[in-house]
Amino acid sequence: MKIALAQLNYHIGNFEANTQKIIDHIKLAEDKGADLVVFAELAICGYPPRDFLEFEEFISFCEAAALEIATHCTKIACIVGLPVKNQVLQGKDLYNAAYFIENGEIKAIAKKALLPTYDIFDEYRYFEPSRTFSCIEFKGKKIALTICEDLWNINDNPLYVSNPMDELIKEEPDVMINIAASPFSYTHDDERIKVLSDNAKKYHLPVFYVNQVGAQTEIIFDGGSLVFDADGAMKAEMKYFEEDLQVFDLEEIENVRNKYPQPERLTDIEQIHDALVLGIQDYFKKSGFTKAVLGLSGGIDSAVVCALACRALGAENVMAVLMPSKFSSDHSVQDAIDLVNNFGCMHEIIPIAAVASAFDSVLAQAFNGLPFNLTEENIQARTRGTIVMAMSNKFGYILLNTSNKSECAVGYGTLYGDMCGAIGVIGDVYKTQVFELAKYINNERELIPVNTIVKPPSAELRPDQKDSDSLPEYDVLDKILYHHIEEKQGSKSIIAKGFDEALVQRILKMVNIAEFKRYQTPPILRVSPKAFGMGRRMPIVGKYMA
């Protein structure tokens, strides 16, 4: 039996495009001699469809698409994911399911049992967990078909009624196939490989795993579909951050025990770079936009976002707006100009000193006798936000937010100013990682000016301002934030690692106080195990201070 894994980029709710893409790859797999082609979890509608699942018409479109796909499976069988109705009058209305289609007919349905409810997942909101399991017979083989989380063997959640493979193995299957929508984080690929390898060894069966690729707003899927033999040895690893289709001979996987040459793994920064480029591309393509605008300050954050946008969309589709204030240094303006010249993107220089001064004049009577402080600094930031939003409205550009994760965490940003935007490009990238990204972007030649990388970070909202006036050095700050956000550690645990007690308490207080700001920020491209947004849900007015 020859099995094709089709690793594709789907568009949530775009049934016409998804269906045609699936049909095209059925034909491609057939032409390559495959007997069975396997598509990802909820491939027909795209993942995660969220509350689209509450619309009856949405489910009917899924079913109609599946019937259309079935008409193209006369010479080849396929496995494809979709939501299906629960015909029993108990529990949720839907199952997260997969159809096995052969000879133009739906011959079997597999339903997901282990419904994830952590981090970005909320599947129990929509789906009923399966409680019955049976293998699929095809070409003299028994297939144990599972869906994503069903191979992660999480048994300590009371919602997880049974481990599917512990039931399916009783039927003595010949192969495991797992269809998935496994989101990217820069730590996840190694974890995923280990889990799948462990399953192959535990059940002593080959594993064929297909993941989707592409970005759905803030969630990015990296592909990296995998094949393992019954000893848990990796036999194939498909492309990352790209669509791919490959055909594998089950007999060879079962019987040829030669070691698969392991490809060199991408570094964390390389993965983050490729994920962000894909995230920008798909946000624009799937939203129907082509051109981006951003404020370019001469600092490292906006420089990195500009570079990523140029790589994702083409420099000709990126507008960088330079908005020097009376506090902007000459070298910051020059650094920004050098960057746009290096990439060849569009740019405008719009000084804000006169606009900020006009605000100062209008507010002079109300602020009479009060000193210059954060208020006037924020007026400058909001002036910039107004200008880039004006460029967005006038020309139809989509505004890219350039705030990094360190700033988002501690509230070092201005609402309706530098926190404006339609998508947060580096909001899940710590400042120290931003520096690494800049160096990686420059690995072949200097694109981001070296001065942008080496100069002390500054918002340039008052004379000689530096980020370090308000924050600890980023190499210290980011370590504290990582322990708190990604590792979910409280102050006592972090202090026990050797960090200053007063500093830790101050930083964690800043994180908690800034929660109201993060509720008003754009969606952030997720690249870490714990990103701000739907995967981290904190109360704004909670009293608990970790």
From TrEMBL:
Q: What is this protein called?
A: Glutamine-dependent NAD(+) synthetase
User: Where along the chain is deamido-NAD(+) bound?
Assistant: N378, E407, K517
Which EC number(s) are documented for this chain?
Answer: 6.3.5.1
What job does this protein perform? Catalyzes the ATP-dependent amidation of deamido-NAD to form NAD. Uses L-glutamine as a nitrogen source.
Q: Mind giving the lineage of the organism this protein is from?
A: Bacteria, Pseudomonadati, Bacteroidota, Sphingobacteriia, Sphingobacteriales
Q: Which residues bind L-glutamine?
A: Y118, S182
Q: Which GO terms describe its cellular component?
A: cytoplasm
Q: Is this entry keyworded Ribonucleoprotein? A: no
Enzyme kind, highest EC tier: ligase
- List the GO biological process terms: NAD+ biosynthetic process
Q: Which family does it belong to?
A: In the C-terminal section; belongs to the NAD synthetase family.
Q: Which organism is it from?
A: Pedobacter psychrotolerans
List residues of the CN hydrolase domain.
1-252
Catalytic reaction list: deamido-NAD(+) + L-glutamine + ATP + H2O = L-glutamate + AMP + diphosphate + NAD(+) + H(+)
